[in-house]
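Q: Could you fold this chain for me?
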Amino acid sequence: MLAFKKNMGSIDRVIRFLVGVILIAVGFFKQEVIGDTLYAILLGIFGIINLGSSFMSYCPFYHLADVDTTKTKQDSL
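A: Sure. Below is the predicted structure, expressed as structure tokens.
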């Protein structure tokens, strides 16, 4: 099984979850707001990606940029 080291903190996960839900709602259910079907589908897909990274607590872009928003006990001391 492929395991990823968590690199997203709680606040980051909540924000990504909310953004993902909004993008999915606009992309798939409010296509008339966007005006173009391709852009609406791309927004929906980007929303699904945000939801997935939120649930996995892992962002591949954070990994590439060496960013970690999780807090450990040693960080708070």
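A (continued): Residues 16 and 68 are 15 Å apart (CA to CA).
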